[in-house]
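User: Here's a chain of 201 residues. Predict its fold as tokens.
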Amino acid sequence: MTAPPDVIPDKRGDAAVIERSWHEPERFGAIFDAYFKEIHRYVARRLDVHAADDIAAETFAIAFRGRHRYDLARSNARPWLYGIATNLIGRHRRDEQRKLRAMERVDQAETRLTGHEDQVAARVSAEGIRGSLARAITALPASQRDVLLLIVLSDLSYDEAAQALDIPFGTVSSRLNRARSKLRKALGGTNPLIDQEGTTR
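Assistant: Prediction complete.
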């Protein structure tokens, strides 16, 4: 039996959904359903849950209003949405930096790392970073911090981060390398960007 037109898969993925939403706005709901929780989680980890409610909602409102300008050559809308969210977070950067500085004052006994496994588990998160790591991230230039947090918090690939920030692939790599070097120096040689397999990002 042939599937109804609405459920026939389109190899263009998100791009096909967005293009259809140009004439059928309700179709954009599929993009919201697919990515809202992920975008909300990213914002919450960089700022807080209350800010995430507003910023995630605004991300999709902006995306909906700008859907006619979406590059249909990109089948995956994820980097586009992360780019919008990151720009909105930029408007709240002062609050973000204030929060990171406040984390420095948290009792160090609460966050003492006891071994390599704990270091791996303490991957960069606005809810989990403390002390010298918070201070080091706060000190990074905004351009390096955005690349770092998109890749580490959201597991975006270098290519997806490049799309999200509308910068060349090589720029992502160089900014991440500079950020990693600065963080390593601030942490006395410890590399905070080790993934769960033990490989360096």
